[in-house]
Amino acid sequence: MLDLAKHVVLCALLGCVYASCPPRCECSEAAHTVKCVSRDLRSIPTGIPGYTRNLFITGNQISRIGPESFKGLDNVTNLSLSNNRISEVESHTFTGLRSLRSLDLSNNQLAVIHPEAFIAQNQSLRELNLSRALYNHSSVMDLANSLRWSSLGNLRSLDLSHNSLIFLPSRIFSHLSSLQRLQLSNNSLVAIHNSTFSGLERLQELDLTLNALKTVPEEGLRELDSIYPATLLLGENPFMCKCGIEPFALWLNRSQERISDAEDLVCAFPASMRNTSMLAVGTLTLGCHQRNVGADLALQTSYVFLGIVLGFVGLIFLFVLYLNRKGIKKRIYDMRDACREVWDGYHYRFEIDSGPRLSQVSTNADM
Ligand SMILES: *[C@@H]1O[C@H](CO)[C@@H](O)[C@H](O)[C@H]1NC(C)=O
Ligand SMILES: *[C@@H]1O[C@H](CO)[C@@H](O)[C@H](O)[C@H]1NC(C)=O
Ligand SMILES: *[C@@H]1O[C@H](CO)[C@@H](O)[C@H](O)[C@H]1NC(C)=O
Ligand SMILES: *[C@@H]1O[C@H](CO)[C@@H](O)[C@H](O)[C@H]1NC(C)=O
Ligand SMILES: *[C@@H]1O[C@H](CO)[C@@H](O)[C@H](O)[C@H]1NC(C)=O
Ligand SMILES: *[C@@H]1O[C@H](CO)[C@@H](O)[C@H](O)[C@H]1NC(C)=O
Ligand SMILES: *[C@@H]1O[C@H](CO)[C@@H](O)[C@H](O)[C@H]1NC(C)=O
Ligand SMILES: *[C@@H]1O[C@H](CO)[C@@H](O)[C@H](O)[C@H]1NC(C)=O
Ligand SMILES: *[C@@H]1O[C@H](CO)[C@@H](O)[C@H](O)[C@H]1NC(C)=O
Predict the structure, then answer these.
(1) Are 241 and 350 found together in one domain?
(2) How many domains does the chain have?
(3) Which of 3, 14, 91 is nearest to 47 (CA)?
(4) If you measure from the C-alpha of residue 93 to the centroid of ligand 2, how many angstroms do you get, rounded to a whole number?
(5) More confident residue, 296 or 150
(6) Percentage of the residues of the chain whose pLDDT score is greater than 90
């Protein structure tokens, strides 16, 4: 109170030439930075200087923020409100921060998020940190609404790690067309659906480590293919290596170059498969479709056997021919001689026949 009074008096006397600093905060004009760290503050302090670009109000007891909290702070680009007890973010809370690029709300207890909570002027927001920020999974519907209505078309990075999310509402990220980095690690996601990641046209990195994925069926694989070529992190999921996981295992093998932790992915269940590399999981290791595999093998074996038998028969035939080569030669000569005799006989008969016919023709011509 005394600080404030002094500040007001000084301001009145000097026309506020000297920039001031709110009580319990540290201000550095040279660094354009104000820090109010772990000072038991219950609300956003007033009197933050206009030069401030980096504003840290962290580790306090602030439970509510609204549009009146950040007036006249045109130059703030980085705002951290992490480690407070913020439970509600009202509409247009950050609209006054005309240059805001990075907003850190990590380690809070957001239960109510208004649809236009994150609107920043000129779509200036680039980074939003909501790590360990949601009170419980129920807040995810509010979050989905605010991601939709807050004009976050320029957002590059969104951190939603450590939030106990069980599922992601369909198309939750569909308005984040510039997003490059999405962190979803340490949630409880069990599946990836059709349109979970739709709209993420520029995604470069997706972190799904430490979730509850037991496998990823075709639908999810298609979804992950739809955000190609974003790199993926899939480690520390409880993969269940039993029949049915082969499409996923094959996909992993095929997509290795974009899965940063492909080499580290291991089965968690069943116990007999624990620690087996997911890349080594194939049809044979799982013993699935054993009958088909057996049939294929039998068929192949029978083809090989047939080939060998035919080859053997052929060899014997050639060998017999070789042994009888003299007899065959003789028979060929005999046949030749016989042919010759037949030919000679025919020739002779032709000559006999042709005589009278010729004379007959000439007689006809004379008439
Ligand atoms: C923001 O910074 C600019 C340049 O540093 C300065 O001229 C302006 O007065 C500052 N805005 C406020 C509200 O103090
Ligand atoms: C402010 O945010 C930017 C990203 O928008 C980051 O690169 C920079 O390090 C941050 N500065 C401070 C002081 O935290
Ligand atoms: C909005 O952004 C554009 C370009 O990024 C800039 O030229 C313009 O001054 C900004 N307007 C406001 C009100 O900050
Ligand atoms: C978000 O905040 C948490 C905790 O404050 C920090 O560990 C994490 O690195 C931040 N995320 C990003 C993307 O900066
Ligand atoms: C989340 O917290 C609210 C308020 O305490 C409660 O009504 C709701 O059931 C909780 N949701 C979950 C999923 O625990
Ligand atoms: C995951 O998040 C929970 C809280 O949701 C936390 O207690 C736990 O330490 C986190 N695990 C890791 C490895 O960060
Ligand atoms: C997934 O998308 C296809 C069309 O792309 C649609 O036919 C199918 O019903 C969808 N499945 C779910 C579970 O939404
Ligand atoms: C799995 O591998 C890790 C490290 O490679 C090892 O610490 C752990 O004991 C192994 N677990 C089992 C059940 O083999
Ligand atoms: C994985 O892919 C490689 C080629 O990239 C192939 O040689 C190998 O047999 C495949 N492994 C399995 C189990 O399919």
Answers:
(1) no
(2) 2
(3) 3
(4) 20
(5) 150
(6) 64
Full DSSP string of 96-155: T-TT--EEE--S--B-EE-TTTT--GGG---EEE-TT-BSSTTHHHHHHHHHHHS--TT-
Mean pLDDT, the chain, rounded, equals 84
Q: Which of 273, 291, 309 is the last residue of a domain?
A: 291
Sheet with 112-113: list strands edge to edge: 64-65, 88-89, 112-113
Ligand 3 site, residue 98, Cβ cutoff 6 A: yes
Judgement on whether residues 183 and 328 belong to the same structural domain of the protein: no
Last residue of a domain, one of 269, 291, 313: 291
How many residues are present in the chain?
Answer: 367
Q: 105-114: string of b/e by CB count within 10 Å (b at 16+)? A: bbbbbbeebb
| Per-residue confidence (pLDDT) for residue 339, from 0 to 100 | 64
Contact 70, 47 (CB under 8 A): no
For ligand 8, atom 9, name the residue with the nearest CA. 275
Domain that residue 145 falls in: 17-291
> Do 188 and 335 belong to one domain?
no
Amino acid at 112: V
> Which atom of ligand 3 lies closest to the CA of 98?
14
147 and 287 inside one domain? yes
Q: Is 350 among the domain residues?
A: yes
The verdict on the CB of residue 101 being under 6 Å from ligand 3 is: no
Is the torsion defined by CA of 141, 146, 148, 154 positive or negative?
negative
Residue 141 maps to which CATH number? 3.80.10.10
Asked if the structure places residue 308 within a domain, the reply is no
Ranges 149-158, 257-266, 282-291: which has the least confidence: 282-291
Question: 318-358: per-residue pLDDT in tens?
Answer: 766 677 777 777 777 787 777 677 667 666 555 555 544 44
